[in-house]
Every structure is written in C-alpha cells, then in structure tokens.
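Tokens for chain A. Residues wanted.
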C-alpha cells in the first residue's frame, strides 16, 4: 500500500512498528518495581491483607515492592498537591514499572478511599505521565458472594490512566473467611488465583517496562508535536521580521559618550547574533 491510498496521513510522522524497535536494552536486569494500592482504612482491612499477600508473592518472584498507606491522604483538592502524602503517592507511581490495585466493593463500586488515591494521580504533570505505560493487575475483596463490579471498574480506571492492564484478575468472595488470625490468606482456589495474577503481572512487567515509551508513542501525538514545532518556528520568524532594525542609538552615535571616553562603542546583542 502506498501513501497515495492514505491521503489523510502525515507521512513525515508515521512510523512503521518493527521487532527491532522492541528490542530490550542490554542492561535491563534490575528487579521489576511494583507499587501496590489498597482501598480501606479499617484496622482489619481485607483489601490490605490481600495487598500484603500479593506483595509476598511478588517478592518471591524477585520484584521490588512498595505498599502505599492511604491513611492521612487528604481528600482530592482539599489541600495543595504539595502535601507530603500526595507527593509520596506521586513519587511512588513514577518509581513504579507496574502496579497492583486492590479495593473492597462498597455499594457496587470501588471505595472512596481507593478512588481518592487514583484521583490524586494526574494524567500529565508537565511532560511527565505518572501512570502511562505501566502494567496493572486488579483485584477485589467481597463481603459476600463473588462479584466483579470492582475489578471491572478498576479496568476502566486503568485504561483511563493509560496503563497496560493484564488479562487475569482476582475477586475474593467472603473475604472474612479467607484469612487466618495472623492476616495470612488460607489455601484455596482464591489463593491460587492470586498467585496466577501476580505471576502474570510479573511476566507482563518484564515484557513491557523497558519498551513502554515506544509502546505508547502515538502517531496523533507526534503529529501534534510537529504542528506545534512548526507554529513555534513560524512565530519566531515573524517576531524576528517585525523586530525594528538596529538603527544607531546614542550608544552607537559618532559623538557618543563611549567615544568621548575613548572606549569601544557598545553593540546590541541582536546585532551580534545577526538577528537584524
């Protein structure tokens, strides 16, 4: 197919994906960095217990992990983004290469505690996108029978945050029955599924992390950047054209005070740079 068949595409910014561009750097051997978020403040939070169980499994695989504590994280926009807990959360998201989101189901949806954490993560912060291109695993705990409302909602959030959400997921029914007195998850099919999800997340993170910039590099954004550059260049040229010529000024006149003092006349910087 020739570009004549695609007249609306800007050929200058269209890039054909290749296997070579997906090649991993030779020094990519550090442990995957995984951030884990959970959605309850209760002392006996089952989403926290599940988050810690997931962390143990990831550490067994060799991941470097961090679990964010949502206590003392203010409600969105009630304080400036410079608040220490907000900065901690954003720094951890930037540090991460993959994330695990665990929320209870409350009234058929994610909890406010969990959503507040995601709301504090901006899609963009200048030229930085704190979540884009990172892998994501979603899990939920249920107080009663098994439900998938929360994991479905978390998938929507993950797509919105431009993350690579893995296919597998976990929903733990009657979570209060699935943990012992020490907060450890009991052996069960639910536990095996959690192991499956963490194993899959670890694999996907290894595949994606050093390729994420290339994987999320988009034609439309390259096209927009090219237009912005062209406008910037045009604006600079116009500004230079409209700049008044450097006519002699008192500092450059034949009988100025520099001459009177026997000093070399001052020259405008624009003349030195050839802008006139």
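Reply:
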């Amino acid at each position: 197919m020739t570009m004549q068949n695609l007249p609306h595409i800007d050929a200058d910014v269209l890039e054909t994906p290749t296997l070579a561009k997906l090649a991993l750097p030779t020094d990519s051997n550090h442990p995957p960095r995984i951030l884990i978020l959970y959605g309850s403040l209760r002392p006996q939070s089952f989403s926290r217990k599940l988050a810690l169980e997931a962390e143990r499994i990831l550490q067994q695989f060799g991941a470097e992990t961090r679990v964010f504590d949502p206590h003392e994280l203010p409600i969105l926009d009630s304080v400036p983004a410079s608040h220490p807990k907000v900065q901690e959360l954003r720094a951890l998201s930037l540090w991460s290469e993959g994330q695990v989101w665990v929320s209870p189901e409350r009234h058929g949806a994610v909890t406010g505690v969990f959503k507040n954490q995601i709301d504090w993560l901006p899609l963009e912060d200048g030229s930085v996108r704190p979540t884009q291109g990172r892998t994501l695993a979603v899990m939920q705990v249920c107080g009663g029978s098994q439900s998938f409302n929360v994991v479905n909602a978390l998938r929507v959030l993950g797509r919105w945050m431009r993350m690579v959400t893995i296919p597998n997921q976990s929903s733990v029914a009657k979570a209060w029955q699935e943990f012992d007195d020490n907060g450890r998850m009991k052996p069960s099919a639910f536990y095996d599924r959690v192991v499956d999800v963490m194993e899959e997340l670890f694999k996907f993170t290894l595949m994606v992390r050093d390729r994420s910039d290339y994987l999320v590099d988009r034609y439309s954004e390259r096209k927009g950047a090219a237009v912005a550059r062209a406008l910037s260049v045009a604006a600079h040229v116009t500004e230079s054209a409209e700049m008044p010529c450097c006519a002699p000024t008192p500092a450059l006149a034949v009988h100025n005070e520099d001459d009177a003092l026997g000093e070399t006349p001052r020259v405008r910087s624009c003349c030195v740079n050839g802008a006139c």
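The chain is about 40% helix and 10% strand. Strands lie at 33-38, 64-67, 98-104, 135-141, 164-165, 170-172.
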